[in-house]
Design goal:
single chain, alpha/beta, Helix Hairpins, Rossmann fold, Alpha-Beta Plaits, 4-stranded antiparallel beta sheet, 12 helices
Length: 334
């Protein structure tokens, strides 16, 4: 926000300077036209060489009234020109310094990122993802090649990279091999598909979440290596169907997801080699007491899932418990 205020102040000063220059040129040209009766080109040229102090000989001999007008033009015009050029130099210098230090700061921040999310595209989908990740205090970086959107992100203080997300060099700059997930939210399915192939080729362990415009293309994305494929059209149609068939369930889910006063947290817990839960059933592991949560599903390493698992469900190495509990901080963390 501080950079935004500084840029606005510099831009305001620059606008005033440009307006001042135009006014000096306008009134100088009109003055010579009226006082000396010169043509428009001669009057404009005389105004320019006067306020720029280049010291070129007068276009035509000046009358006494012309000399007096020239004196006033020098005092007024040169001051305005000096102010305007100063604002221009300050603006250019500040932008250059901001760009240099901004890139250094961003490079340093990226070099320290691990288990972050790479968001490719800052359009309608990407910007919403950014807002949610910021609320959740999740580390992320946005890749965008539209300079106007990049400027907007600079003003908002959003970590970003200017470049083509489908290029390997850009993804490497975003530290894709250190990232947890990548969101493919570019403008077209073709771009997102190529991005998915490139990302998986660079790091096959990164989780790719791809947005598709055409639901029929989802199968191609899964073959390309996308972990999850999201179709706004399909999701919207499913939500409408759920509202028609199970409106209370949808209302409850939306309430939990959107009401910040409801302190619920959905989280994952992985059963590792040193875990006390390994080899035990949910009942024996006393999950509810140890995690303070209710297990709603178990994701097995082979890809199968057990929803609403019973107390006799035995936990194996690599199992992921999906559980829900009251948030200790009293904030929404879904």
């Amino acid at each position: 926000m501080r950079n935004k205020v500084i840029n606005e102040q510099l831009a305001s000063g620059l606008r005033k300077g440009v307006i001042g220059i135009l006014l000096v040129l306008f009134f100088g040209t009109i003055g010579y036209r009226v006082v000396e009766g010169w043509g428009w080109l001669d009057a404009f040229y005389m105004t320019v060489i006067t306020v720029s102090t280049v010291g070129i000989t007068e276009v035509h001999p000046l009358s006494d009234a012309g000399r007096l007008f020239t004196t006033l033009l020098i005092f007024g015009g040169v001051g305005v020109m000096a102010y305007s050029l100063g604002r221009l130099a300050e603006f250019m210098f500040q932008r250059s310094i901001s760009n240099v230090f901004g890139r250094r700061t961003m490079s340093k921040k990226l070099s320290q990122m691990k288990q972050h999310v790479i968001i490719c595209g800052y359009g309608r989908t990407g910007s919403r993802v950014v807002a949610e990740l910021r609320d959740a205090n999740k580390s992320f970086v946005v890749i965008e090649e539209n300079e106007e959107l990049v400027k907007r992100m600079e003003e908002l203080g959003i970590p970003h990279l200017l470049g083509d997300a489908t290029e390997e060099e850009t993804l490497n700059d975003a530290r894709i091999c250190e990232a947890e997930s990548l969101v493919a939210a570019l403008d077209s399915d073709a771009e997102n598909l190529f991005l998915t192939l490139t990302a998986v080729g660079l790091c096959d362990r990164v989780r790719v979440i791809a947005r598709v415009h055409e639901p029929d293309n989802a199968r191609k994305f899964r073959k390309a290596g996308a972990t999850r494929v999201v179709s706004p059209i399909s999701s919207g149609a499913n939500q409408i169907a759920q509202l028609l068939t199970r409106p209370s369930v949808v209302d409850l889910v939306e309430l939990v997801a959107m009401d910040k006063s409801i302190a619920l947290e959905v989280f994952e817990h992985t059963v590792e080699e040193k875990s006390d839960m390994l080899g035990k059933t949910l009942s024996e592991a006393r999950v509810r007491q140890s995690l303070g949560a209710m297990v709603i599903a178990v994701k097995h390493p082979d890809g199968s899932n057990a929803f609403d698992p019973g107390p006799e469900t035995r936990l194996r190495l690599g199992d992921v418990l999906v559980a829900i509990r009251q948030s200790a901080e009293g904030e929404r963390t879904l």
